[in-house]
Design goal:
CATH topology of the largest domain: Rossmann fold
Strand content: 15-25%
Structural class: alpha/beta
Radius of gyration: 19 Å
Helix content: 40-55%
CATH architecture of the largest domain: 3-Layer(aba) Sandwich
Order of helices and strands: EHEHEHEHHHEHEHEEEEHEH
Shape: globular
Largest sheet: 6 strands, parallel
């Protein structure tokens, strides 16, 4: 029977640490502040925003929510971003994506100041991840996956890690972060031949493809640790990950559930990035 890697335990440790760091910032006259930019009221965005607001209140981070019309023009959104860039009281900015069709998302990403990009939106942040530098910030979900592995003392140095998925939001950055931990990393995608065979050889498997219950018994081995980043709805209307949890759980060493896994840690990483951005203003 696998060890279940619950996100709450990781999030609670991070939260307690952040409460102390926020208190020190406020003692130095700095109130860490996050700007959330949301176009419309998509259900997933609202759910994440509620979690972020709750976590922010707990650690003492101030949040300014820019709730904008879904049909907002490119020019108007650009002005919002420029205003956030110019506001020294705002340390981090989260732009909910994907942006509506009329918005040039790449251009918005290029406009946001990298020092305020706390979710790996800008080229500057992603460059820092790929170069192994502290400039910018990794996407929060990718960093949450690594945070869980470290919290539960999963050996990454020398480990064979397989990442299922190659997106810039999770797959590619989490692969780079695993490399920084001295893992040997293979990235799999829709064109990978014998993907189950490749995955089965992994010590650490990161599932981030967005396909419900794709990871079955053919993908796993008894010594494997699985981080399931997927959030899907199955045929029965239930929330599920990329891993067929009921089938796989008895056959692996450890894994994260969905829900109560990676998603539970993501908002804590978001707040960690805001706090770090505020701390950099003091330095």
């Amino acid at each position: 029977m696998a060890k279940v890697l619950l996100g709450k335990e990781v999030a609670d440790v991070l939260t307690e640490e952040l409460i102390e760091r926020v208190a020190k910032l406020k003692d130095n006259g700095v109130e860490p502040t996050l700007a959330i930019v949301r176009l419309g009221a998509e259900a997933d965005d609202l759910s994440y925003e509620r979690g972020a607001l709750k976590r922010a209140e707990r650690v003492g981070v101030k949040v300014n929510v820019h709730e904008l019309a879904r049909d907002l023009s490119q020019e108007d959104l650009e002005q919002v971003i420029l205003d956030i860039n110019a506001d020294d009281s705002v340390h981090g900015c989260l732009v909910f994506r994907p942006l509506p069709q009329q918005i040039d998302e790449e251009k918005i990403g290029a406009m946001l100041a990298s020092k305020k990009d706390i979710d790996g939106f800008t080229d500057g942040s992603l460059a820092g991840v790929f170069k192994g530098e502290d400039s910018g910030f990794a996407p929060c979900t990718a960093e949450a996956a690594i945070a869980i592995l470290k919290h539960y003392n999963v050996e990454l140095s020398g480990a064979r890690a397989v990442v299922l998925g190659r997106s810039l939001v999770i797959g590619k950055p989490v692969a780079m972060m695993l490399l920084q931990e001295n893992s040997t990393v293979t990235i799999c995608h829709s064109r990978t031949k014998d993907i189950a065979v490749v995955a089965k050889d992994a010590d650490v498997l990161i599932a981030a493809v967005g396909q419900a219950k794709m990871v079955t018994l053919d993908f796993v081995n008894p010594e494997q640790v699985i981080i399931d980043v997927g959030i899907n709805v199955d045929d029965e209307g239930k929330l599920t990950g990329d891993v067929d949890y009921d089938a796989v759980e008895p056959e692996v060493k450890a894994l994260t559930p969905v829900p109560r896994g990676v998603g539970s840690v993501t908002t804590s990483i978001l707040m960690k990035h805001v706090v770090e951005a505020a701390e950099r203003t003091l330095n």
